[in-house]
Amino acid sequence: MTGQRLKFTALLIDLDGTLVDATEALVEAAKHALTIIGFQRVSPQIGVEIARKLQSNLQLDNLLRKSGIVGVKRQKFVTAYLNAFHNLTLKKTKPIPNVHTTLHTLSKHLPLALVTRRNISQKQLIKELKRLQFLPYLKAIVTSQDVNKPQPSPEILLKAAQKLRVSIEKCAVVSDSIVDMQAGKAAGIKTIAVLSGLFNRKELEKWKPDFIVKNINCLPDLLRGFSEKDSDNRNAN
Predict the structure, then answer these.
(1) Over the stretch 103-142, which tens digit does the pLDDT of each residue have?
(2) Which of 39, 147, 177, 198 would bridge with 34, disulfide CB 3.0–4.6 Å?
(3) How crowded is residue 123: how many other Cβ atoms within 10 Å of its Cβ?
(4) What is the pLDDT of residues 50-61, one digit of tens each?
(5) Hey, what's the torsion of the CAs at 73, 78, 79, 82, to 10 degrees?
(6) Residue 9 burial by CB count (10 A; 0-12/13-18/19+): exposed, middle or buried?
């Protein structure tokens, strides 16, 4: 990778499903919430499906109704689930294998910003990032609490670019999330979808990301490919 020839000036990177596996936290959060409302026979795997719905900005009513979670219990469940998830992420999220090597490589050539839909403070998130040993690679952090409009509004991406002091047009967003692909399109930037999270290739393809890769560890080779093509084009001219 050669910094002067990279296609992008900065990367705006999602957390859950992109840098970390949060599945255990999602399942444990559902177990906790189900206990609170007195449900013992509902599979805690519902926690993963709830996350898929929330990540797609879809209503939870039908999913919860099928499990018998309605009315006041629905409200208690959702509140308990989200609170438990945000607390469990302090201990339960796991780095995607080899992600530290990738972040080290990328951060040598590009400023990296972390963008997450989690509705938590930066103070709480930084505790987790310290545990994960991600902080040295990040130049900026933005959570849902730092913006007024959630994705698919591009506000969180614009805020991250502003913190990096780069033009949004020179950024690319990297995420497993459908709404991040939508936000990236709304911002007019390149979108890179990863298959390491909640959504499969077919689901992501519906939103026409510019690139789809197996996981974030594919990015150095992807960007190196751009560098080599740019170099070849200059030599040809």
Answers:
(1) 999 999 999 999 999 999 999 999 999 999 999 999 999 9
(2) 39
(3) 7
(4) 999 988 888 999
(5) 150
(6) middle
The rounded distance, in Å, linking the Cα atoms of 11 and 132 is 19
Q: What's the total number of domains in the chain?
A: 2
E strands, 157-216, in order: 171-175, 190-194, 211-213
Specify the DSSP class assigned to residue 60. S
Residue 141 and residue 147 in contact, taking contact as beta carbons nearer than 8 Å: no
Residues 111 and 72 in one domain: no
- The model's pLDDT over 161-216, given as tens digits with 9 standing for 90+, comes to 999 999 999 999 999 999 999 999 999 999 999 999 999 999 999 999 999 999 99
The parent domain of residue 134 ranges over: 3-21+95-236
Between CA 68 and CA 62 the distance in angstroms is: 10
Q: Are 66 and 142 in the same domain? A: no
Which residue, among 152, 198, 235, has the nearest Cα to 26 in the 3D structure?
198
pTM reported for the whole predicted model: 0.91
CB 171 within 8 A of CB 12: yes
37 and 133 together in one domain:
no
Query: Which of these, 178, 174, 179, lies nearest to 152 by C-alpha position?
Result: 179
Strands 94-95, 20-21: pairing is antiparallel
